Amino acid sequence: MHTCPGIIAELVETLSGEDVNTQVEAARTLASLAAADTSNQDAIAAAGAIRPLVRLLSSRSADVQVEAAVALRNLAADHISNQDEIAAAGAIPPLVRCMSSESREIKSEAVVTLGCLVLHHPTGNRALWALLDSRDTQLAKAASYSIDMLGL
Length: 152
Fold this sequence. Notes:
The protein is mainly α. The chain has a single domain (5-150), classed as Leucine-rich Repeat Variant, CATH 1.25.10. The chain has 10 helices and no strands. Helix 4 (50-56) runs antiparallel to helix 5.
């Protein structure tokens, strides 16, 4: 399923808007498109979606965090260059922070997305292990928990 680049660009722009509901819908739509095929993964990354999605992992809205994690996971699935870009955009620390959420859904999506980024990918794996040395003790504790959950 190929999608018009103009539609993807509009969705990416919506991610940076102020309305939580439109952010949720944009991230959800991008996640669905990324899951459809590799050409959509490429087009979404080329449209600049990765950095805004990483920023949304730190949203105050649990729904936004969940949809951003799902979209990032679908962009990373079986796509090494997107995995590199997602890790380079700083996704590992906010995903690890999501592991401290009281929401089971956020924790669940965060651990699966982390798995896509670290299990078979050295850049993401190193980034996760490096968080153990963080001065932020809560982040270091969440990193340790994440490593245990992923069986690393």
